[in-house]
Amino acid sequence: MSQVVDGEYKPQPIKGTTTVGIRTKDAVILAADKRATAGNMIVHKSVKKIIKVSDYMALTTAGLVADAQMLAEALRNEIKKYELQMRKRMPVKSAAMFLSNVLFGAARVYPYIVQFLLGGYDTAPRLYSLDWFGTVAEETFLVTGSGSPMAVGVLEAEYSEDMSVEDAVKLALKAVYAATRRDTASGEGIDVAIITKDGIRMERHSLDEVKGMTIKIA
User: Fold this and answer.
1) 154 with 171: CB under 8 angstroms?
2) How far apart are CA 85 and CA 99, in angstroms?
3) Is 39 helix (H, G, I), strand (E, B) or coil?
4) How many CB atoms lie within 10 A of CB 173?
5) Percent of the chain residues topping a pLDDT of 90
6) Are the beta carbons of 152 and 206 closer than 8 angstroms?
7) Rounded Cα gap, residues 195 and 119, in angstroms
8) What does pTM read for this prediction?
9) Pairing of strands 18-23, 28-33
């Protein structure tokens, strides 16, 4: 996308978003809206902001879409290489550190304008955040993107590490939906990834569907 400024075309980066990660004792839930914006324009209404990088790991992406997609592909290739050489699964923390090293190496020259949530299951559920400087943090719940202020309030009020997987999915939907109500860069629908010891299950929900839910957390 581009816009005209003083008679010249200026590129507008495609970005968004609201993404949520929740870790429970049995699973990691990732959720993200589907809107992408460039400046004040909605340019895509069906962006996949949850990217599966292995059979047991997935990323949410916030920031510049092209940067995020390229780094996700780099991580996917690194995981494949590790598993071929080591003949075992790459630990989720190792995947987080690979991304951290790439982000840190670029930060002082030409930084990648991205934030990631990395969720996975190795010996237990794992959830990490990574910013464009390469900072890594492991948490029980995380939010990235322009809709974060609205979503994090929902999580802080209702999250429990002992909650069921079903309730965690409901909470993730509720948090992203809250962001779409106030943040113009978030919207169109909500994708969800449920990561357990059995693998990754993906779900798609329209905003009307989520709005019609009676979301009560047990």
Assistant:
1) yes
2) 19
3) coil
4) 23
5) 58
6) no
7) 7
8) 0.86
9) antiparallel
Q: Which residues contact 84 (CB under 8 A, 6 or more apart)?
A: none
Segment (H or E) for 62: strand 57-63
Contact 88, 113 (CB under 8 A): no
List the domains of the chain with CATH numbers: 2-6+14-212 (3.60.20.10)
194: tokens are 């449920």
For the chain, state the CA radius of gyration: 17
Of 17, 18, 24, 60, which is the active-site residue?
A: 17
Query: Which of 207, 184, 193, 160 is CA-nearest to residue 15?
Result: 184
Query: How far apart are the C-alpha atoms of 217 and 195, rounded to whole Å?
Result: 20
pLDDT in tens, 94-118: 999 999 999 999 988 889 989 999 9
Q: What is the phi/psi pair of residue 95, to 5°? A: -65, -40
Question: Are 33 and 176 contacting, i.e. CB atoms less than 8 angstroms apart?
Answer: yes
Please confirm, yes or no, whether 18 is among the known catalytic residues.
Answer: no
Can you tell me the distance from the alpha carbon of 108 to that of 111, in angstroms, rounded to the nearest whole number? Answer: 7
Give residue-wise pLDDT tens across range 67-89.
Answer: 999 999 999 999 999 999 999 99
Identify the sign of the CA torsion 88, 22, 114, 111: negative
